[in-house]
Amino acid sequence: MKGEKMSHLHWITATLVTALVVLAAMTNVALAQHRPDAKPPTEGQIKRVAEAIPAKANAKPAKPRKVLVFWRCEGFFHDAIPLANKCFELMGEKTGAFEAVVSDDMSMFDPDNLNQFDAVLFNNTTRLKFDDPARRKALMDFVKGGKGIIGIHAAADNFYDWPEASEMLGGLFDGHPWGAGGRWAVKIDEPEHPFNKSFEGKGFIIRDEIYQMSTPPYSRDKLRVLLSLDMSKEQNLKVKGMKREDKDFAIAWIREYGDGRVFYSGLGHNHAIFWNKAIVQQYLDGIQYALGDLDADATPSGQLTKKPKPALAPGAKD
Known about the structure:
Shape: globular
Mean pLDDT: 89
Number of strands: 9
Strand order of the largest sheet: 2-1-3-4-9-8-7-5-6
Largest sheet: 9 strands, mixed
Distance between the termini: 102 Å
């Protein structure tokens, strides 16, 4: 009898231990999705980023600004996220354009928490679902009410079950035929646009991962496109997986949404992007635009290319 009791106790103990191991494994998987053990940036990387940040912003803030730099990942995690977080922290400190608050906590989108910010920057976030309807409403009210949204690279890899949010951002990930190890030709869509000034009117070659966007929500009739892939260049054409027949692969844009403003840049997979002076300058300009401190024409590109009908002669019929 005593042996049977001991055997039963051992079975219970073994079962409990197994359950705890499984629970721990499940917890670790969940944590790994949005908070993996990522390597912090090195001193050398931080130094290069600090040197790439402009000494001052192009616009003086109308008031002290606060930006939520949000980096939660429920899908793929980009190794450059910690360096990017540091880049935006240093950018705010060095230029005085804003204060960056870095977080991966979804409770930041509770209305009382969100309303303390002037803009939200989605730093390479992936597969965010926003299951809480109150948080969805809070974010939409936030931007429609006059505040800003900034998306960096994988910010387009979110909102698959929330069409309103993907529409607001302007793009939804549909593959990346141009891998992070390749060198791709980028076109300056509008050399005279103030947010392209740092590129000095010249297209450039970049080593980074470039996304293609699905339609909908992507449309030049809704977005002011700043940068795109230069599809006249052979290296951009020699890839597999291109889906867009129009070969329109936008990389960066701005838009108005309600009373708010949106800036998106698809650059930001590789670490070196965050010490590229021209790109960092465009990031800063885009952030200041989203904050409402730097004015720019956001008339959609599609409207700029549509020619008005010629005036009809008196008495003529259309």
